[in-house]
Design a protein that fits this description.
The complex is a heterodimer of chains A (207) and B (449). Chain A has 9 helices and no strands. Chain A is mainly α. Chain A has one domain. In chain A, helix 1 (36-52) crosses helix 8 (172-189), helix 4 crosses helix 9 (194-202) and helix 8 (172-189) packs across helix 9. The longest helix of chain A has 18 residues, at 172-189. Chain B is of the alpha+beta class and 449 residues long. Chain B has 3 domains: 2-150, Roll (Transcriptional Co-activator pc4, Chain A), CATH 2.30.31; 212-330, no CATH class; 347-448, no CATH class. Chain B has helices at residues 55-74, 116-131, 157-180, 196-205, 212-215, 220-229, 236-253, 295-298, 304-309, 347-364, 396-400, 407-410, and strands at 2-8, 12-19, 36-44, 50-53, 87-91, 97-103, 109-115, 264-271, 276-282, 313-320, 326-330, 376-383, 388-393, 431-439, 443-448. The longest helix of chain B has 24 residues, at 157-180. The chains are: A mainly alpha (207), B alpha+beta (449). The interface between A and B is medium-sized, with 32 and 33 residues.
């Protein structure tokens, strides 16, 4: 009779107070917190990632663990709280992200996006083909699945009383365009400097 | 020694050729450092075009593409000025089309249209070059956010102005149209000008008049319930006042008395304010005979308020006889002797009012009037101000010749507080009762009752 060995290590290294990986993103001077617009963009990108892979939020959490970001995101509730800084959300908390929190989210986004590079390229390529031929988007199974899931997530989590959200909810086509635009942004996150590009682009128009 | 570097991506191939002037450190095991670039070529999978140039071209490419991609990411256009005139990128026709234009050393401009995937491959090749510290370490990815000035409003200016413009336009059109409509003449209904104190009392008791549902008329079925369930007015005084009021109303409204060939009998239901809320033909009178009588005009559609108040009703039998005489009796008769409400019995007051009435009636009773030898006897009720608030013929001659006396003209129901606007036909003002005799030759005799 053999005893099953415990797979978990006896102890874990205590997480560093400030994860080193955050330093890969440059600091933007004179900014301590994020604007609602930045928070909204980050949450929407996470939403697009969720639409791309089933169980997306689980992958985000395990990514946070892999990258030693536990001190900032230790469980799903923390992650959810960070995402609820998006003013479009039904559960908008009026909190703001601080810079390390935003950096952590950017790193998770670019890391997840890089894992999904092939899928993102495939979907965007399919979208281009479909557009060139003037076909409806549901011609491509995988693409229409992504759009479908994105619309469902958006409907269930965003506050329809917000004018901008209501505009999106009114027209399916409009929402599809948003999903494709987010997919494009994710594509640019997959590159060699994708994380930095996304991070710096967040501050466009804010400084 | 020449060094070649190639960055390969699915749609883009970036090739660099250069050398290291300090060849001393190239002998080790590391990748040789490329410090100076001599030729740069950028190939695209889709087309025949390729771009080439020297270091200037490379720097322009890095900055131009980098800035444009940041604009794609954030949705805020970056000013391409730092990229120089060498390489420029602008959005093409469509969301996923990008137009890259570069100047060749010969001075020509080469244009390449890229889709988003190709643009990404281009920028990734550039990023790989920039992060590669063995190739041109002095070329850095220089990413900077653009300032607030470049941020465009979420909604374009003209769209934001749209609601205001349409609003003003609508207002102007409405104003122009309303200007053409004449100002309506306000005609205040006289009945509403009653005694303000009485008016207020009534308002306090009645349900909110602003409530439209209270004023809505009721259906036939509701009327039926109202009629069967309503309390009956039993007070003989009240019935008597209602009878007198209605008799006068119907009689005044019955103009074409010769059009009737048979007696037409109706049972009518009335409320305390003298409104006929329902009637139906009885005693072999045809159902459609009512249009030969004034009843349809006098019928007063009851409102929801009547139900809410559970207004009491009383029934009368009304007969329009074929010789033009109106007969009216309470359906259930009088259970007692009708009396007068609120009688002025102060002797001094009575004397003064009698004198006043005498003067009024003598002035009005024409000497030429002919009573055919009869005395016309009336009971006349006078308010404190001397207005005639009620009268009643007391003998047959008076009944027949009522219209030749001045009484119908002098009657002022409102002064006595009688009428629909008061909600009752019972006089709310105190009245002095007199017996009045009209005789031929303009003689009037008055005695207190």
């Amino acid at each position: 009779m053999s005893q099953s060995a415990s797979l978990s290590p006896d102890y874990r290294l205590p997480p560093r107070p400030k994860p080193l990986i955050l330093d890969t993103l440059p600091d933007v001077p004179n900014l301590e917190t994020c604007s609602p617009r930045m928070q909204q963009r980050l949450d929407l990108l996470l939403l697009a990632l969720e639409a791309l892979e089933l169980g997306g939020s689980e992958y985000m959490l395990s990514t946070a663990q892999d990258l030693e970001l536990q001190s900032l995101i230790d469980n799903r509730v923390t992650l959810w709280r960070l995402r609820c800084t998006n003013p479009w959300r039904r559960s908008y908390t009026r909190n703001t992200l601080n810079i390390p929190q935003a950096k952590a989210l950017v790193i998770i986004i670019s890391y997840r996006a890089r894992q999904l590079t092939m899928l993102i390229r495939q979907l965007l390529g399919a979208h281009q083909d479909i557009q060139a031929k003037g076909l409806p988007v549901d011609q491509h199974f995988r693409l229409s699945e992504y759009l479908d899931r994105f619309r469902t997530h958006f409907r269930s989590r965003m506050n329809p009383r917000r004018a901008k959200v209501a505009q999106y909810l009114e027209a399916e086509d409009h929402l599809n365009q948003l999903a494709i635009a987010l997919l494009t942004q994710l594509l640019f996150c997959t590159g060699a400097a994708g994380g930095q590009r996304l991070w710096v682009s967040l501050f466009d128009g804010e400084v | 020694m020449n060094i070649k570097r190639q960055y390969n991506l699915p749609n883009v191939r970036l090739e660099l050729e250069g050398f290291n002037p300090n060849a001393t450190d190239s002998g080790g095991n590391a990748r040789p450092l490329m410090a100076i670039v001599t030729n740069v070529e950028c190939h695209f999978n889709n087309g025949e075009h390729f771009l080439s140039g020297g270091r200037d071209f490379l720097e322009g490419l890095v900055q131009g593409v980098s800035a444009y991609v940041q604009g794609v990411l954030s949705g805020i256009d970056h000013p391409n000025s730092t990229g120089g005139a060498l390489v420029k990128l602008v959005a093409g026709s469509g969301a996923d089309r990008h137009l890259l234009s570069a100047q060749t050393p010969a001075g020509e401009t080469v244009e390449v249209e890229l889709n988003t995937l190709e643009l990404f491959d281009l920028v990734d090749a550039i990023d790989q070059l920039c992060t590669d510290n063995r190739t041109l370490p002095d070329i850095d990815l220089n990413l900077n956010p653009v300032s607030r000035r470049y941020r465009v409003a979420d909604v374009p200016q003209h769209q934001r102005a749209m609601p205001m413009v349409t609003g003003l336009g609508t207002l102007a059109i409405a104003a122009a149209l309303l200007f053409l409509i004449p100002v309506p003449q306000v005609e205040e209904p006289q009945d509403l000008r009653g005694d303000p104190t009485v008016q207020r009392e009534e308002d306090d008791e009645s349900p909110d008049l602003d409530d439209p549902s209270a004023m809505a008329t009721i259906s036939a079925a509701e009327l039926e319930t109202l009629l069967t369930e309503a309390e009956l007015i039993t007070d003989p005084t009240e019935i008597n006042f209602i009878q007198r009021y209605l008799f006068r109303e119907i009689s005044n409204a019955w103009e074409d008395r010769s059009g009737i060939t048979q007696d037409l009998a109706f049972r009518i239901s009335a409320t305390i304010d003298g409104s006929i809320i329902a009637y139906r033909a009885i005693e072999n009178t045809p159902e459609t005979a009512d249009d030969r009588t004034p009843l349809p005009d006098l019928k007063f559609a009851p409102t929801q308020m009547a139900i809410a108040n559970r207004e009491a009703i009383t029934d009368f039998k009304v007969v329009f006889t074929r010789n033009g005489v109106l007969q009216m009796n309470p359906w259930q008769g009088y259970r007692g002797r009708p009396e007068f409400t609120n009688v002025i019995d102060d002797p001094d007051r009575l004397a003064a009012l009698q004198d006043q009435l005498q003067t009024t009636l003598e002035a009005a009773w024409d000497e030429e009037s002919n009573t055919f030898g009869n005395d016309l006897i009336f009971r006349v009720a006078v308010t404190e101000t001397g207005e005639i608030g009620d009268y009643e013929a007391q003998n047959n001659a008076g009944f027949q010749l009522e219209r030749s006396t001045p009484l119908p003209e002098l009657l002022n129901l409102r002064a006595a507080g009688i009428g629909r606007s008061f909600g009752t036909v019972i006089p709310s003002e105190p009245l002095a009762q007199f017996r009045v005799l009209f005789k031929s030759g303009g003689i009037v005799e008055i005695t207190p009752l």
